[in-house]
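User: I'm curious what two different proteins look like when written out as structure tokens. Can you demonstrate?

Assistant: Sure. I'll show them one after the other, since each token string lines up with its own sequence. Here's the first protein:
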Amino acid sequence: MDKAYNLTSIRDREDMIRLHLLDSLAILPFIEGKRVIDIGTGAGLPGIPLAIYLSEIEFTLLDSNAKKTRFVQQAILELKLKNVSVCHNRVEQYHPDKKFDTVITRAFAGLSDIVELTAHLLSKNGVLLAMKGQSPDVPKLESAITTLIPVNVPG
């Protein structure tokens, strides 16, 4: 029996493509290094679309919601993705053996909180990509060099 999971609030198929798939892939040019973590991955966005496109890069998809990480694990199995692992944990409690070259967040928290909560995951010259919407509030951050990069999503 197929089971439905309510993982996103978007129901219209065209909106799903634009607001999830194309939005996820819009940050492709900014991914750096060989290790990437997607914090608060939810239904696997943006991590899974990026991992499909960037098969040579190792992705970790982290979320504190067990229902979502079970779904993402099943999606990874069905898509036969060899470069993706799933971690059911809170970001502040996750301490990997090796840091990440790119940390990605999408609709996770305010920018100041994102910087604070993910700092222990980012390698020395790593990049934090915080996908913050159309008009993000970007506070002055003492501990980080910040650059606001507008990204156009088709449609």
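Here's a second, unrelated protein for contrast:
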Amino acid sequence: MNNRQKRRPVGNGSGAPDLDVLIIGAGPYGLSAGAYLKARGLAVRVYGEAMEFWANKMPAGMLLRSPRVASSISDPESAFTLETYEKTSGIKPSAPLPLETFVEYGRWFQHQLAGALDTTPIQSVRRENELFLVTLKTGTVVRSRRVVVAAGIGSFQRKPAVFSSLPSHQASHCYEGRKIAEFAGKRVAVIGAGQSALESAALLHESGATVEIIAKIPQLRWIGMHGWLHNLGPISQMLYSSYDVGPAGISRMVSFPHFMYHVPLGLKDKVRVRAVRPAGSRWLPARLASVRTSTARSVQSAVSAGDEVVLKLDDHTERRVDHVLMGTGYSVDISKYDFLSQSLLSETRKLGGYPDLGRGFQSSVPGLHFIGATAARNFGPLLNFVAGTEFASRELATFISRTRIKV
């Protein structure tokens, strides 16, 4: 922080907090948490552009992997569901749900915050005595009793080192918001075997690109291809939750985050990996039928050669493409949130790159909370999905209401 910022008036000028809770991030988790906390009578403000990551970083034209029943952003009265938005807006319900519809739904949801959303970017967050001092890009400093980080996964793109030397116009991550249409007529290698990679490959192919999927796994996997398991009445209800996260049995386990919290970490990690392993939705195979796929293969080197990228695979074959699109997912590492001060990061106990969280999603720094994907290592993979907003927001709001920090 520079001297000019230090001389600015802080908060309300009295040293008292401006807010009970300041939420960073206006995606589904931030919006939902804001609605729950506001309903509890707390002074809360959400910072961020509503649904910015979904609108600007995800491939246009994609469809949500989650079933409709698991695609509503939670609010305390269940008054602002996806179905309510569609009925209010005169939109015909569809499944799977188009990304564009979900984005507009989230923006509609944010109006329920009634002025509690501020789009000013966050510069930094630090702790001073019992308060958090949050500096905005404008230089204004806001004092808050608590900070909830709901900043999503945009900072966590996983980019294999083999592609690190390629310029940005020849290699990108599928979470960077590149326009699919700009690849029409080009040769594109899509790296990965998860939903993002496979759906990006389908969209590229449909837009006129020549596409090859290169994946390490022996064969591509598809979600929900054993439909009969979902049609066994009470037995199916024992095997699967309505959230549809994970295979039979595991789906039930991960639908109870409180239970997952008490599962030993080693076993919990195995369950988490199994529940979100690379796979594509069942409506993708037909769209990829004429797309070249190389499974059980990995890229050993990637070199820019003029307008081309030369890829050498582990079977000693070579590919020449115009662009490499990495559908390689993300790795949580909260140190990549550039708004968190080094002192806060050093005080936050971690499990790998994840924060180690307790009740109410509180970290080892009192008053600092993390929700969404950053909470998945403690509470299970449900927190990677929109369906987790109900549990996260209820747990957070209940904890904060019961343990008000007195300043």
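A detail about the second structure: The chain is about 25% helix and 20% strand.
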